[in-house]
Amino acid sequence: MSGIRLGADCLSTYEEGIKREWIIGNGLGGYASSTVIGAGTRTYHGLLVAAPENSPGRFVLLSSLDEEISTDEELYKLAVHKFTDTVSPTGFNCLSEYVQNPFPLWVYQPGDFTVKKKVFMVHNSNTTCILYDIESITEEALLKIFPLINSRDFHYTARSGYLSFSQKAYPEGVDLESSNGFTFSLSSNLEYHSDPRWYYNLEYDAEKQRGLNYQEDNFSPGYFEGKLKPGTSRFFIIASTDDIPPLNLRKVDELYKRAVNRQNLLILNSRLTDPFALKLLRATDTFTVKNPFSGENTIIAGYHWYSDWGRDTMISLTGLYLIPYRHEEARSVLMNFAKYCRKGLIPNTFPSFGGEPVYNTVDASLWFIHAVSRYFAYTGNFLFLADIWDTIEAIIDNYRKGTNFGICMDSDHLIQQGPQLTWMDAKIGERAVTPRAGKACEINALWYNALKIASSLGTILGKEVFLYEMLADGVASNFESTFWNPETNCLFDLVCQDEAGNEVKDPAIRPNQIFAVALPNTMLPPDKEKAIVDRVEKDLLTPFGLRSLSSDHPLYKGQYHGDAFTRDTAYHNGTAWPWLLGAYVRAYRKVNNYSKKSLEDMRALLEGFDTHFETAGFGTISEVFNGDYPHSPGGCIAQAWSVAEIFRAYVEDVLEVRPLLSTISPVVLSTISQEMDMMSFSSMKINEKTT
Question: CB 324: neighbour CB atoms within 10 A?
Fold first, then answer.
């Protein structure tokens, strides 16, 4: 697969160069990331951002490497830093090319030199490797590389007065310990020289625009130095929190080949050949991680600042794990979240690695049941169902009887909940921007879907499922009359009560209703499903996602930018979300009878993201886009459910590569039940022989 490339025209100025960022992960939630010109614009940028042992979260350890090449006549600096009112050095002036295939590669051409720089991480290790290939026609040129380090939570900035470092230097590198207790090492085949100094008042433009702290100091413990010979010289620098053995150039090359081969194996295992699908597949890997403390598989919701979120994980499971044939990891994720189920609630989030889960969500548990059904559809692993069945039962039982946060089934069989529990959960202080307390349309679509899934899967296991069918019938008999709005020919978003106890129906046109069409089990007649899709297309569809609110609404905000207050106000009031296109594509194809035209329409829509791969987060998909034209990206540069749902929709609904069991028909249920009975009988006979 060919990589993604930027030429000098996209790299020639600071303003142009900082528009694009790159990120690579290590499978543990750690990462390396910066802009394509090497200028840090976020507190989250760094060449080694890790979750060291016993840390409460992720920490920036190696911020950057400042390279200099000197001759008797010239000094070339390849780094880029922003200080107050100035950019210095301006290494982008020497930068001729940036390529990502699969890892970042920079090509600099300072004077008579050509410098090729690669960055990659060792999988399942807090280790970043930087490789240099330098071509020179000059005698006695000197290379110096200055590491800029830190030791701080990646959400914040640090000043020299709050941090200090001790170092143990040796010819090939240095062991470092920070005053806040973190240790890591830098090693190289260049010679290390201790020369401690601080870099003061670096500025991060992205944080300044977001209204956050944007100035800090970085420490440089010394520098690495070596002479360049005529021809090609090769060097490396490794930053790691692990106790790694001494490495030479051959071993580092082997690590690089192993990292590339791992990426190639992901492609081979996926069995996909479509070029756009393979680009999306590449983007999935960064989000699939193991918790560094527990070793459990999970999903990082978004980079740079999110941890693992239950809702996002369940929505993303098909695209990140099932389509790429990472089925054992998918099973581990489901079992992990099932382990933390409390009173029928799957965790909303784990605030930091090793932190206690927070349960304030109404939909994560319903998405969990959906994810279990998708896992079964892809694997046919009905033995897994027996392991997970108790969790499914607990979710439905607690939702039916009532659980925390006001989540309970009303007398009409519909689910109601307290404020700020759906995916539209932004808060300003203690005020929920879109509270949505009451009965939300997508929650009840998910509730019906979960009940029908429980009935189907329970039948496979030989369970009594009459209650689930009865509840599903009750939901279906009340959903349309409760949520259908004949004036807008679509669904009310929310049904609730005012302070006087009067029923209030919110006519705001939001994308949540699309799930009443897109989920596997739905309740509305075909004409109303078609009307919903038509309304969503007319009022909410953009090239990069569905708007979270119609532009006709008085609360609509078409721009997502500025400080936290401004962004949070717009977050679910007009901002467009790529992940919602997954449901839209499925619904569109369904109501258009899976016609050839509907396929080509949706192919064109999804392939529009091909251009986005070269903006914002390089090779990935952003969290959100402006609702207004030209729909500029914002939020996280890489979002799990953005990538996962675009990938899933493209593979399943455009390429029409469907899972093993696309639908669980009565015939399939009967066959599987018979197989279960036969396995149980065989197991009994084996046990009899054993005894």
Answer: 24
Cα-Cα-Cα-Cα dihedral sign, residues 299, 302, 304, 307: negative
Q: Which amino acid does the sequence have at 511?
A: P
Return the DSSP state at 417: B
**509 within 8 A of 540, measured Cβ to Cβ:** yes
Query: If DSSP codes are grouped into helix, strand and coil, which group holds residue 177?
Result: strand
pTM over 0.90: yes
Question: Mind listing the pLDDT tens digit for each residue in 407-440?
Answer: 999 999 999 999 999 999 998 888 889 999 999 9
Please measure the distance between the N-terminal and C-terminal CA atoms of the chain and give it in whole angstroms. 57
Relative to beta strand 20-25, strand 616-617 is parallel
400 phi and psi, to 5 degrees? -70, -45
Residue type, 192: Y
Phi, psi dihedrals of residue 577, rounded to the nearest 5°:
-120, 120
Alpha carbons 212 and 227: distance in angstroms, whole number: 42
Structural domains in the chain, sorted by start: 4-263 (2.70.98), 271-674 (1.50.10.10)
Task: Give Cβ neighbours of residue 471 (< 8 Å, ≥ 6 apart).
Answer: 396, 400, 409, 413, 451
Residues in the chain: 691
Residue with tokens 């309304």: 535
Two tokens, residue 354? 């090793």
Tokens representing 594 are 């899976």
Question: Token pair for residue 105?
Answer: 């590669």
User: How would DSSP label each residue in 49-92?
Assistant: EE--TT-SS-EEEEEEEEEEEE-SS-EEE--EEEETTEEEEEGG
Q: Which helix (H) or strand (E) holds 315?
A: helix 310-317
- Per-state percent for the chain, helix, strand, coil, to nearest 5: 35, 30, 35
CB 332 within 8 A of CB 297: yes
- CA–CA dist 468, 489 (Å, integer): 30
Lowest mean pLDDT among 95-99, 453-457, 630-634, 659-663: 659-663
Return the HEC string of 337-356: HHHCCECCECCCEECCCCCC
Cβ atoms of 49 and 30 within 8 Å: the answer is yes
pLDDT tens-digit series, residues 167-178: 999 999 999 999
**Cβ atoms 239, 145 nearer than 8 A:** no
Per the CB < 8 A criterion, the answer to whether 584 and 514 are in contact is: yes
Average pLDDT over residues 21-46: 97
**Of 440, 384, 444, whose CA–CA distance to 413 is shortest?**
444
